[in-house]
């Protein structure tokens, strides 16, 4: 069984008011054709790698993103279009898919590898599951939440970078 060392942990709850502008500066351009939820995931993943002092995620690292619900605003928009007997707009539908968020995070990190989205409420159980089978490149584990409460969208992202501990 692998023992893990956490090299970085970042939390944005909520993110700073200018987080989207900061992300655009960090990436050198504003992300296009991705939803708010995917942008928030990129922001958190990049901030975590920066905090860990890593420019790139190793090729054999695992990326796991968890959440309670997924891309709620994009999903809501697509279902509202369906309720009006309209087909969802292509980019709106794609923004509701967790796989598109994973592709956007990977592209923003210049990384390709083992990535997946996990839906659940018990973050510690999801983290233990994500660590199983992780290789020597370790694990970048994030939690991304987008909730609408009283007409406002509340955002939260939390990320950890784990590497195998040296013995």
Notable characteristics:
about 170 residues, alpha/beta, 5-stranded mixed sheet, about 40% helix, globular
The rough form would be described as: globular
Secondary-structure content class: alpha/beta
Number of strands: 5
Amino- and carboxy-terminal Cα gap? 12 Å
Largest β-sheet summary: 5 strands, mixed
Residue share in helix = 25-40%
Rg value: 16 Å
- CATH class reads Alpha Beta
Hey, roughly how much beta strand do the residues contain? 25-35%
Question: Can you give a write-up of this model?
Answer:
The protein is an alpha/beta fold. It has one domain (4-164): Thiolase/Chalcone synthase (Peroxisomal Thiolase, Chain A, domain 1). The chain has six helices and five strands. The protein has helices at residues 19-27, 36-52, 72-83, 90-95, 98-109, 123-131; strands at 4-12, 62-67, 114-119, 139-149, 152-164. Strands 1-5-4-2-3 form a five-stranded mixed beta sheet, with helices on both faces. Strand 4 (139-149) and strand 5 (152-164) form a beta hairpin. Helix 2 runs parallel beside helix 5 (98-109). The model has no long low-confidence stretch (mean pLDDT 88).
In short:
The protein is of the alpha/beta class. It has 6 helices and 5 strands. It has one domain: Peroxisomal Thiolase, Chain A, domain 1.
How are the elements arranged and paired?
Layout: E1 4-12, H1 19-27, H2 36-52, E2 62-67, H3 72-83, H4 90-95, H5 98-109, E3 114-119, H6 123-131, E4 139-149, E5 152-164
Parallel strand pairs: 2-3, 2-4
Antiparallel strand pairs: 1-5, 4-5
Helix pairs in contact: 2-5
């Amino acid at each position: 069984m692998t023992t893990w060392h956490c090299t970085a942990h970042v939390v944005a709850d909520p993110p700073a008011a200018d987080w989207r502008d900061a992300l655009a500066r960090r990436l050198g351009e504003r992300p296009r054709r991705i939803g708010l939820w995917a942008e928030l995931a990129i922001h958190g993943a990049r901030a975590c790698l920066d905090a860990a002092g890593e420019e790139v995620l190793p090729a054999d690292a695992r990326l796991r993103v968890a959440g309670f619900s997924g891309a709620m605003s994009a999903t809501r928009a697509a279902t509202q279009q369906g309720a009006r007997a309209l087909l969802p707009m292509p980019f709106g539908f794609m923004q509701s898919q967790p796989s598109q968020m994973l592709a956007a995070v990977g592209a923003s990190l210049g990384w390709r590898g083992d990535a997946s989205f996990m839906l659940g409420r018990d973050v510690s159980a999801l983290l233990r599951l994500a660590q199983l089978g992780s290789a020597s490149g370790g694990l970048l584990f994030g939690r991304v939440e987008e909730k609408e409460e009283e007409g406002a969208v509340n955002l939260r992202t939390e990320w950890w970078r784990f590497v195998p501990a040296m013995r």
